[in-house]
Amino acid sequence: MSFMKNLFCRSLGACTIALVSLSAPMAIGQAATAASSAQDAQPAKSSDVLNPALNVVSQTMAGLNISRWKAPGEVRGAMQQNADSISRDLHNTLPGLLAQADAAPNSIPAILPVYRNVDALYDVLLRVSETANLAAPENESANISSSLNQLESARKDLSNVILSIAKNQEAEITKLRATVAQYAAAQQAAPAKTTVVDDGPAKTSSTKPKHKKKPAPAQTPTKPAAEPAPSQPQ
User: Fold this and answer.
1) Residue (of 54, 130, 38) closest to 93 by Cα position
2) How far is residue 207 CA from its own chain's centroid?
3) Percent helix, strand, coil in the chain (nearest 5)?
4) How far is CA 15 from CA 84, 88, 190, 193, in A?
5) With 0-12 CB in 10 A as exposed, 13-18 as middle and 19+ as buried, what is 204?
6) Which pLDDT tens digit goes with each residue over 23-73?
7) 232 in helix, strand or coil?
8) Is residue 90 a contact partner of residue 114, using CB atoms and an 8 Å limit?
C-alpha cells in the first residue's frame, strides 16, 4: 500500500512540474504575441498628421511680400530670413525626417526628430506672425495666423501620437514582466524533480566462480618390510 502511495505522489509531482514547464513558456509566448499584435496596430503616420498643416504654411510663406510691410528695413530683413528659413525647412529638412518616421510609425526615437523640428518651426513662425500683426497687410497677417494655428494643432496631434505609443509599449512591457515573474515564482514553488535511472535487472556473472582445489592429504612414509634373518648352518 505504501509503495502505491509513493508511486502516486511521484507521478503527481512529475505532472505538476510538466504542467509548470509547459504552461509558463506558453504564457510568455502569449504575452510576446500580444506585444507583437500591439506593434502591428500601426498608429497614424507622422506625415498624415502634419502634412495638411505644413502645406498651408508653405503656401502662406510663398504668398508673403515682406518688402511691403510697414516696418524698419532691418525688421523686414529679419522677417524675410525667417520666412526663407521656414521654406527651406519645409522643402529640404522635414521630408527626410518624415520619411524615417513613416517607416517606423511605432518607434518614438524615429518620430521625436520630427516633433523637435516642428516645434522649432512653430517658434520661428510665431515670431513672423507677431511682427505681421503689427506691420503686414491684413490678409497676409490673417493667413500667417491661420497657418500658425493649424501648425499648433498638428503639433499637439503628433505629441498625442507619441504619448499613445509610449503608453502602449509601457503596458506591454508591464504585462510581459508580470508573466515572467509568475513563471519564476511557479518554478520556485514546484517540487524538485528527481530522476530515477532504471538500469534493468542486476547483471549476473557468466563465469562460474573458481573453486579452490583442496590440498592433497600428506602421505605418510611406509616402512620397508623387514628382511628375513639368514638361516644359520646346522
Assistant:
1) 54
2) 64
3) 75, 0, 25
4) 74, 69, 10, 10
5) exposed
6) 445 544 554 554 445 455 678 999 999 999 999 999 999 999 999 999 999
7) coil
8) no
